[in-house]
Amino acid sequence: MQTTMTRTLILISLATVLSAASVACAQEGTGRSGGLLKMWLKKKQDEKKLVAQTPGVTTKLDVAYLSDGEAAHKLDVYLPAKKDKPLPVLVHLHGGGWRAGDKERMKDTGLFYASQGVLFITPNYRLSPKFQHPAHVEDCAAALAWAFQHAAEFSGDKTKIFLSGHSAGAHLAALVGTDATCLQKYGLKISDLAGVIPVDTASFDLTSADNENLVKNMVKAAFGEDPQVLKAASPLLQVFEKKSYPSFLIFNTTNRAAASAGGRKFADKLKGVGGNARFVPVANHTHGEMAAGMHDAADPVGSAILQFIFPDAKQ
Q1: What is the pTM of this model?
Q2: Per-residue pLDDT reduced to its tens digit, 75-112
Q3: How many helices (H) and strands (E) does the chain have?
Q4: Which run of H or of E encompasses 88?
Q5: 76, 115, 253, 265: most buried, per Cβ within 10 A?
Q6: Rounded CA separation 62/181 (Å)
Q7: 8: β partners
């Protein structure tokens, strides 16, 4: 019976990973035959290596960040072994086209950052098509507020809380970091964030005609077609003069011309209103490799993020 249960859990885990991986493959224009299983197997191998390389890292899983009983309103915490001083905090939002993904897939990323001395927090959030905007971003804001409220309990420094995301999670991170209304209900300002790190989102402007057709379909499913809703959900269109924004570190692969151009445009607009923003175009990376690069100190993505979080560290 135990063997049967174990096999069932493995199959459920595989199904979850394949669902999110299919979104990534579609965004990259890659075929699915054999590729998804290979991706899953490599991920499990990478996780085993990271576990071996991160002794002392501990976790607190499935912590409720809202007390409403909603299954998606839970997060995982990865704690560094050394907690002799207040730790920087990274809240990371998973990707999946606003319709898939799970915090459980962030294990390798969580282990990596905890091993680097970062308190890593990753939440789930409600997904489409069952839920539409603003459900996703409301949940992300609630999880971020939880981090501000509870960081000190895990030796975290609430003055050094960073928000990151990959793909759809990058869009949501950028929206939380530009739309002040997201955090207002929790008594927080977007300038309370130490920095925002969007990694390879497909679009900062959901109204743009330049968005890839696949992205347009995902946007329709998650946000609808009301022009005012799409405008309100576009980070690029939430940047104004005389507003204070956190520092931004923005990544896009150069493999996707429209997305990369959008990332540069977003950074330029932030800088144009006096904000601190850096755009990092990354060559020879697929959408999936941009995510994997986050947990590799030798990758241009991972190394730049560590420098952003630890600006005074010796290179």
Answers
A1: 0.87
A2: 999 999 988 899 999 999 999 999 999 999 999 999 99
A3: 11, 8
A4: strand 87-93
A5: 253
A6: 27
A7: none
Whole-number Å distance between alpha carbons of 263 and 201: 8
**pLDDT above 50 (res 30):** no
Residues 6+ apart with CB under 8 A from 225: none
Q: How far apart are CA 18 and CA 130, in angstroms?
A: 19
pLDDT in tens, 237-262: 999 999 999 999 999 999 999 999 99
Give the chain's radius of gyration (CA, Å): 18
Q: How many residues does the chain have?
A: 315
Sign of dihedral through CA atoms 256, 257, 262, 268?
Answer: positive
Phi, psi of 200 (to 5 degrees): 60, 50
Residue with tokens 């704690």: 79
Q: Are 106 and 76 in contact (CB under 8 A)?
A: yes
* Interatomic CA distance for residues 107 and 137, integer angstroms: 22
Q: For strand 74-79 and strand 58-64, is the pairing parallel, antiparallel, or unpaired?
A: antiparallel
Virtual torsion, Cα 189, 158, 278, 118, nearest 10 deg: -150
Structure tokens that stand for 133 in this block: 């905007």
| Domain definitions of the chain by residue range | 56-309
Q: What is the C-alpha separation between 123 and 61, in angstroms, rounded?
A: 10
Residue 51: other Cβ atoms inside 10 A? 13
CATH architecture of structural domain 56-309: 3-Layer(aba) Sandwich (3.40)
